[in-house]
């Protein structure tokens, strides 16, 4: 599979070859991607609740939590969309969604699947940035990288940028994070999910899932690439966007996270939340905020939300 | 999710036609509907109503229900206040609270329903008796006025239809049969295409089988089921009887006697009308339903009162007469019963006497044991005698997979159970409540409602729960069909049936709001204990019957059990 049709310093060809091989399995809910399927509703729940919480924060209104179109009219980018599990859900919630992936076969599978669903309005790629607000949700897939998208359309293109379970598969994670972050509009949101680098995570995601239970193909994960929540928070403490001078407007951006309180960011700037698999329900669950053991709950799979400051 | 029209030729390109809402394929023209419910029985109508009660669901999903019969007959169903349909169900508090929560219960004509405050269940051979009462079901510190509500199925279905009249976005297609279901051939799709008898084809994101025992959806999904037909037929009928006097409790007690041929249940509908579900061997059912209704009425009175040996004798008389083509007359059966009564030396002033009660004018002082028995039946309402074969059947799974993906089963399509615990319809309503919650969650999180991921929690929540109730009901049926004395003894002292009773009692009494998974263990001890509390009555009963050695032998064992119960609690 060629990945050289676009520029990227974060795409690891071996990783992409592996995911391309899996591509036909994306929508087999009982197969290799079973855990991703089960995890998906919880990721969406986190995104939806966070967006509504911030909407209430911004407008001082009582945004309805159960509103079915929580993402109506928002421009959303999903980096490393795979088979499009997250993209389809975000589109159903009203998003104007673009899914990109470094694997051409993943993009093909994602497009085919979405095309068969009459509830999704699939617009063929390549993605054309528009300024006219679209009224109905829609979905586009494109075989490209975040770096290429940034080079093509410039920074600050999306209200929401997501990248789920991708960070642990990329080269140059700092570049990857910075690229994703630059694509976020001022006041917009970045959502990430990944695996922490802890002995627990090793035991569950590599030892158990790959080697003992064979839930996923051995070699899917590399322990050294796992990132801990405090490392991500640290990155955004030092991350300014636009970085001083880059946009030529001389405006030096504020860091996305101004400071940590007891290791945790302010609730309006960023949040990390563990997600755990509950075997007896067969579903993933968000670790409740402030619950005893919440820190422990971030010891394996976790979500990060961070918001770009308004200029 | 809006209706879209797409051309088959451009597989990944989407064009909107908007106007027709139809989608042209090379072979068939079909309409898209996110949820297609097949079956407008209690389960299907309740699911449609629940979905209709949620604005969020309605905003996101297009919902269609298909029913073969004419629903206007149910919608316009109207009968005199003292005449009742013969299909009735005891709606548990949990079910009623669910129906209230979605806003449908107020459409039930409550004047035609009866609260059940107590249930008395006794052994046809030993007469060992267990009483369940509403107060036990009440959470500590409160009083539960009732443990279930006897409701005609038609009253419930009419309520759901009237409720659905207020939710026009839910499309009801009645007098339309599902002729066949096939899998769509499109790559990446493969959704179920539902072919209707009026020529239309619906393409379903999620196909719900609420289509009863012979579920066409279950066959399409390729889901096998496990079960058998009981060699048993259930006779149903609507009964007229005298009102209870001031000295007796009101007609809010359900009675069930386990005869070796099957249980007979008396279910109150008003002060003077009740319903019967009498499970018995098919030839007996055939002879009884073919008899003069007055003969059946006498047989029902006898079935609750006479010792088992006499019931057996009466059955043989009825069968012989039926076979000979000379059915017994009402006079003949009365003579038979009073003869049997004398031979058992049943005191004619006792409630167990058929003749005495038959003669007593309404009012007056009732016999002291009258609350141990249902009121004396005077007649059967015209055209209410019917009978149904009984079966046990449980689908291997509730969610279709592979080529049968995007299908789900609820109600009798998923499980059919013996009616002795009155749980069939309640299980269906519990299914609906759980599936409704799954669909709501899926919509909230943008999950495809037809996906396995969206539906899995439903199967997890319901399968084992239903299985537990079904096995308990099945075991009770089998246990009570036995006449061998060790078994009779064991079940009479509660040893053998304790676990099954726990499960069933939990199902009947678990009031909504209390934890669904509340341990049946606790309930267990109170069943044991309440069995003992009714012991005094058992002894009276035994006396009235002039026998009951087994009942007395049971007494010793029951008091032992009581000590265990107390130990368990302290
Ligand atoms: C004698 C007896 C007594 C009972 N007593 C109780 C009780 O006290 N309490 C209790 O909880 N339960 C009781 N039950 C059980 C209860 O009646 C059933 O569980 C309940 O009716 C099942 O409802 P349902 O909606 O799942 O299925 P059904 O009522 O069987 O409805 C299925 C519907 O699907 C439709 N259908 C089927 N195929 C097609 C097709 N191809 N196209 C279109 N439509 C189709 C049918 O027309 C029907 O309307 C009793 C049952 C019996 C037999
Ligand atoms: C574990 S999958 C996750 C898929 C999807 N986000 C989900 O969670 O359902 C990782 C995906 O990221 C893609 N990927 C890896 N590195 C990437 C990069 N640098 N840029 C874009 N996509 C990448 C892979 O092709 C693969 O589809």
Automatic annotation (TrEMBL), chain A:
S-adenosyl-L-methionine binds at residues 43, 80, 101, 164. The lineage of its organism: Eukaryota, Fungi, Dikarya, Basidiomycota, Agaricomycotina. The gene is COQ3. Pathway: Cofactor biosynthesis; ubiquinone biosynthesis. GO terms for biological process: methylation. It is a peripheral membrane protein. This is Ubiquinone biosynthesis O-methyltransferase, mitochondrial. GO terms for molecular function: 3-demethylubiquinol 3-O-methyltransferase activity; 3-demethylubiquinone 3-O-methyltransferase activity; metal ion binding; polyprenyldihydroxybenzoate methyltransferase activity. It catalyses: a 3,4-dihydroxy-5-(all-trans-polyprenyl)benzoate + S-adenosyl-L-methionine = a 4-hydroxy-3-methoxy-5-(all-trans-polyprenyl)benzoate + S-adenosyl-L-homocysteine + H(+); a 3-demethylubiquinone + S-adenosyl-L-methionine = a ubiquinone + S-adenosyl-L-homocysteine; a 3-demethylubiquinol + S-adenosyl-L-methionine = a ubiquinol + S-adenosyl-L-homocysteine + H(+). Component of a multi-subunit COQ enzyme complex, composed of at least COQ3, COQ4, COQ5, COQ6, COQ7 and COQ9. It comes from the Eukaryota. One of its GO terms (cellular component) is extrinsic component of mitochondrial inner membrane. O-methyltransferase required for two non-consecutive steps during ubiquinone biosynthesis. Catalyzes the 2 O-methylation of 3,4-dihydroxy-5-(all-trans-polyprenyl)benzoic acid into 4-hydroxy-3-methoxy-5-(all-trans-polyprenyl)benzoic acid. Also catalyzes the last step of ubiquinone biosynthesis by mediating methylation of 3-demethylubiquinone into ubiquinone. Also able to mediate the methylation of 3-demethylubiquinol into ubiquinol. Its cofactor is Mg(2+). Mg(2+) binds at residues 165, 168-169. Keywords: Magnesium, Membrane, Metal-binding, Methyltransferase, Mitochondrion, Mitochondrion inner membrane, S-adenosyl-L-methionine, Transferase, Ubiquinone biosynthesis. Its EC number is 2.1.1.64, 2.1.1.-, 2.1.1.114. InterPro entries: SAM-dependent_MTases_sf, UbiG_MeTrfase. It comes from Postia placenta MAD-698-R-SB12. It is found in: Mitochondrion inner membrane. Belongs to the class I-like SAM-binding methyltransferase superfamily. UbiG/COQ3 family. It holds the Pfam family Methyltransf_23. HAMAP family: UbiG (MF_00472).
UniProtKB/TrEMBL annotation, chain B:
Residues 33-318, 382-462 form the FAD-binding domain. SUPFAM superfamilies: FAD/NAD(P)-binding domain. It is a peripheral membrane protein. Its cofactor is FAD. Its main location: mitochondrion. Pathway: Cofactor biosynthesis; ubiquinone biosynthesis. It comes from the Eukaryota. Its EC number is 1.14.15.45, 1.14.15.46. It is found in: Mitochondrion inner membrane. This is Ubiquinone biosynthesis monooxygenase COQ6, mitochondrial. It comes from Postia placenta MAD-698-R-SB12. The gene is COQ6.
């Amino acid at each position: 599979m060629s990945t050289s049709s676009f520029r990227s310093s974060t795409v690891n060809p071996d990783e992409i070859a592996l995911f391309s091989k899996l591509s036909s399995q994306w929508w087999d809910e009982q197969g290799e991607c079973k855990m991703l399927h089960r995890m998906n509703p919880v990721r969406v729940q986190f995104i939806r609740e966070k967006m509504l919480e911030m909407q209430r924060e911004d407008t001082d209104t009582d945004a309805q939590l159960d509103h079915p179109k929580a993402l109506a009219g928002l421009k959303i980018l999903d980096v490393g969309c795979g088979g499009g599990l997250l993209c389809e859900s975000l589109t159903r919630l009203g998003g104007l969604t673009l899914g990109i992936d470094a694997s051409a076969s993943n993009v093909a599978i994602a497009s085919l699947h979405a095309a068969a669903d009459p509830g999704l309005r699939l617009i063929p790629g390549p993605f054309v940035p528009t300024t006219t607000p679209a009224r109905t949700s829609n979905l586009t897939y494109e075989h490209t990288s975040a770096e290429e998208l940034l080079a093509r359309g410039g920074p600050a293109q999306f209200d929401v940028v997501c990248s789920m379970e991708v960070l642990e598969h990329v080269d140059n994670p700092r570049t990857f994070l910075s690229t994703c972050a630059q694509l976020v509009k001022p006041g917009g949101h970045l959502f990430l999910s990944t695996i922490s680098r802890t002995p627990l995570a090793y035991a569950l995601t590599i030892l158990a899932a790959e080697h003992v239970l064979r839930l996923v193909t051995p070699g899917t994960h590399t322990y050294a690439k796992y990132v801990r929540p405090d490392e991500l928070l640290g990155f955004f403490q030092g991350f300014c966007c636009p970085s001083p001078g880059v946009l030529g407007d001389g405006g030096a951006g504020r860091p996305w996270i101004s400071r940590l309180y007891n290791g945790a960011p302010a609730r309006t700037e960023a949040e990390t939340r563990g997600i755990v698999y509950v075997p007896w329900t067969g579903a993933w669950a968000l670790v409740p905020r402030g619950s005893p053991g919440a820190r422990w709950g971030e010891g394996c799979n976790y979500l990060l939300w961070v918001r770009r400051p308004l200029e | 999710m809006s209706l879209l029209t797409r051309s088959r030729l451009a597989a990944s390109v989407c064009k909107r036609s908007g106007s027709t809402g139809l989608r042209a394929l090379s072979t068939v023209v079909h309409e898209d509907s996110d949820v297609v419910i097949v079956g407008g029985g209690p389960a299907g109508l309740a699911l449609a109503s629940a979905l209709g009660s949620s604005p969020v669901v309605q905003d996101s999903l297009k919902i269609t229900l298909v029913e073969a019969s004419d629903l206007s007959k149910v919608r316009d169903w109207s009968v005199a206040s003292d005449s009742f349909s013969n299909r009735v169900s005891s709606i548990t508090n949990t079910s009623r609270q669910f129906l209230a929560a979605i806003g449908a219960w107020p459409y039930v004509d409550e004047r035609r329903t009866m609260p059940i405050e107590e249930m008395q269940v006794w052994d046809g051979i030993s007469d060992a008796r267990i009483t369940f009462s509403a107060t036990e079901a009440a959470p500590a510190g409160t009083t539960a006025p009732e443990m279930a509500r006897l409701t005609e199925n038609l009253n419930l279905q009419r309520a759901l239809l009237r409720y659905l009249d207020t939710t026009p976005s839910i499309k009801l297609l009645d007098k339309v049969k599902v002729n066949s279901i096939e899998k769509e051939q499109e790559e990446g799709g493969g959704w179920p295409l539902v072919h209707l008898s009026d020529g239309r084809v619906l393409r379903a994101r999620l196909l719900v089988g609420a289509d009863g025992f012979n579920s066409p959806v279950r066959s399409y999904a390729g889901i096998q089921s496990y079960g058998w037909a009981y060699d048993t037929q259930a006779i149903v009928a609507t009964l007229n009887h005298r009102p209870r006097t001031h000295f007796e409790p009101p007609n809010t007690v359900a009675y069930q006697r386990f005869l070796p041929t099957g249980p007979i249940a008396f279910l109150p509908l008003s002060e003077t009308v009740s319903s019967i579900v009498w499970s018995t061997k098919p030839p007996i059912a055939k002879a009884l339903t073919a008899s003069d209704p007055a003969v059946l009425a006498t047989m029902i009175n006898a079935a609750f009162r006479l010792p088992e040996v006499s019931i057996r004798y009466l059955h043989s008389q009825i069968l012989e007469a039926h076979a000979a083509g000379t059915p017994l007359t009402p006079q003949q059966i009365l003579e038979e019963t009073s003869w049997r009564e004398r031979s058992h030396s049943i005191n004619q002033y006792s409630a167990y006497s058929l003749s005495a009660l038959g003669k007593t004018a309404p009012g007056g002082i009732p016999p002291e044991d009258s609350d141990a028995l249902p009121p004396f039946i005077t007649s059967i309402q015209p055209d209410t005698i019917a009978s149904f074969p009984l079966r046990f059947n449980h689908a291997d799974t509730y969610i279709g997979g592979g080529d049968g993906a995007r299908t789900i089963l609820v109600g009798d399509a998923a499980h059919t159970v013996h009616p002795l615990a009155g749980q069939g319809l309640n299980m269906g309503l519990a299914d609906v409540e759980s599936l409704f919650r799954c669909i709501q969650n899926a919509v909230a999180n943008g999950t495809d409602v037809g996906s396995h991921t969206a539906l899995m929690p439903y199967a997890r929540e319901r399968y084992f729960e239903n299985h537990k109730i079904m096995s308990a009901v099945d075991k009770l049926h089998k246990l009570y069909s036995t006449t061998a004395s060790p078994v009779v003894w064991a079940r009479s002292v509660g040893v053998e049936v304790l676990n099954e009773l726990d499960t069933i009692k939990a199902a009947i009494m678990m009031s909504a709001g209390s934890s669904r998974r509340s341990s049946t263990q606790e309930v267990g001890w109170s069943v044991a204990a309440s069995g003992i509390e009714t012991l005094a009555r058992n002894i009276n009963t035994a006396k009235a019957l002039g026998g009951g050695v087994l009942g007395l032998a049971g007494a010793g064992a029951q008091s032992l059990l009581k000590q265990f119960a107390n130990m368990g609690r302290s």
